[in-house]
Design brief:
There is one protein chain. With about 400 residues, the protein is an alpha/beta fold. The chain has 4 domains: about 1-60, no CATH class; about 135-210; about 235-285, no CATH class; about 290-395. Helices cover about 20% and strands about 25% of the residues. The protein contains 3 helices and 19 strands. It has helices at about 25-50, 65-75, 75-130, and strands at about 135, 140, 145-150, 160-165, 175-180, 190-195, 200, 205-210, 255, 265, 290, 295, 305-310, 315, 330-335, 345, 355, 370-380, 385-395. It has a 6-stranded antiparallel β-sheet with strand order 1-8-4-5-6-3. A 6-stranded mixed β-sheet has the order 11-13-15-18-19-17, with no helix packed on it. The chain has a 3-stranded parallel β-sheet with strand order 12-14-16, with no helix packed on it. Strand 4 and strand 5 form a beta hairpin. Helix 2 (about 65-75) crosses helix 3. This is Tail fiber protein.
Length: about 400
């Protein structure tokens, strides 16, 4: 028989590591190079003792064995036994070498099979991922609620999964929600949109599986307050809720400077702080509202703290509306050209009038005369009323 061919690795597995995650390509190459080193040594030694026809190699018996050969020729059984043993050992070594080479080839085949299986797994994983992503050219406006799309068929989508649909042109325009239904045969997809970003109608949707929406985060700090229009000089803007003006520039306001008249505010001015003594000019006067003369007078104090009414007959003053506790309100009651007009005051319920133990004051009834009444809005026993605080009579 001929000498066994030398073993040489036919593939570098380190190249597979670039495409297969966690594949031990470098370790396999090191292992098979070690096998080659061993089999090369075995083959070299085998050629020293065995010819291609399987017989002992010519001149394989060294000079120090010549005496034993001669002894063998003259019938020395000990030498015969030694020679036979050497031959048997040589044959066994040859068989072991052939077996090692066969085992090495088997290992190489197993490694190649493992690489093939790993590549197949990677391909399957890529296919699974592709089954969860898709796109749609349906023209849909960004909004919450039920939205319908036509997507690719054969996707691995199911009702209840959460998806994010984002515009391919600008991912800031998106919708996020849960799948209501998906028909893998037609590609019909219905999504219940719960959260959105951006505005507009788009037809370039990328569709990807995503997680459910997390809990709402903490509310951030309030931003700068905006004012509708630009207040002109002498106007004081008002807001419907507590407001901070820190960091806000408003044209036409004034800054306080103690007892003297305020001066015009400029950029970066600190406006009047609570508790600062400030002198107001006539430009900062309070608005005086006019109450419509009718049988039952209606006084809404939300527009002004000061009001006047000219009586054209005996009237009833209804409960005021929109009073704010702690505020001082004043009312001018003016007699018309006839005079002798009176007011009957509502004294029960929220917004009514309280004149204390002395009762309601007597009004001046002379024609074209006026009285000034003042009230404090105070809640007592849980009921907010305008509590009478004084009257000045007989103005003309």
């Amino acid at each position: 028989m001929s000498q066994p061919p030398p073993y040489a690795p036919s593939h570098s597995f380190v190249s597979n590591s670039a495409t297969l995650a966690n594949f031990p390509g470098q370790a396999l190459d090191i292992e098979f190079n070690g096998i080659k080193t061993t089999t090369d040594a075995i083959e070299a030694n085998l050629k020293l003792i065995q010819r291609d026809d399987g017989a002992l190699a010519n001149q394989s018996v060294s000079a120090d064995q010549l005496t034993d050969d001669l002894r063998l020729l003259v019938g020395d059984l000990t030498i015969t036994s030694q020679v036979n043993a050497s031959r048997d050992a040589a044959v066994a070594s040859a068989a072991a070498a052939a077996s090692s080479q066969t085992a090495a080839a088997g290992s190489a085949t197993s490694a190649s099979t493992s690489a093939t299986n790993a590549a197949a797994s990677a391909t399957a994983a890529q296919g699974f991922v592709a089954g969860l992503a898709g796109s749609s050219v349906s023209s849909v406006a960004i909004a919450t609620g039920s939205k319908s799309f036509t997507a690719q068929t054969g996707k691995q989508w199911a009702a209840g999964q959460f998806v994010t649909l984002s515009s391919n042109a600008n991912s800031a325009n998106y919708m996020h929600g849960s799948i209501t239904s998906y028909n893998s045969g037609t590609g019909a997809l219905v999504v219940n949109v719960l959260d959105i970003g951006g505005t507009g109608t788009f037809a370039d949707w990328n569709i990807a599986i995503s997680g459910s929406q997390g809990p709402t985060g903490q509310t951030g700090p309030s931003g700068a307050v905006g004012v509708s229009g630009t207040p002109s000089a002498g106007q004081i803007p008002s807001w419907t809720s507590a407001t901070t003006l820190k960091g806000t520039t408003i044209n036409g306001l004034v800054k306080g400077n103690g007892a003297s008249d305020p001066t015009a505010a400029t950029a970066g001015t600190d406006y009047v702080a609570p508790g600062t003594a400030t002198a107001f000019t006539k430009q900062q006067s309070f608005t005086l509202a006019t109450i419509t003369d009718q049988a039952t007078l209606s006084w809404d104090v939300s527009g002004a703290q000061k009001a006047k009414v000219t009586l054209g007959g005996n009237r009833t003053m209804g409960a005021v509306t929109n009073a704010v506790e702690g505020t001082t309100y004043s009312l001018w009651v003016i007699q018309d050209g006839t005079g002798s007009r009176t007011i009957s005051w509502t004294t029960t319920g929220a917004g009514s009038f309280d004149f204390g133990a002395g009762g309601a004051p007597t009004l001046t009834t002379t024609l074209n005369k006026a009285d000034l009444l003042t009230f404090e809005a105070i809640a007592i026993g849980g009921t907010l009323k305008l509590r009478f605080s004084g009257i000045m009579r007989g103005f003309s």
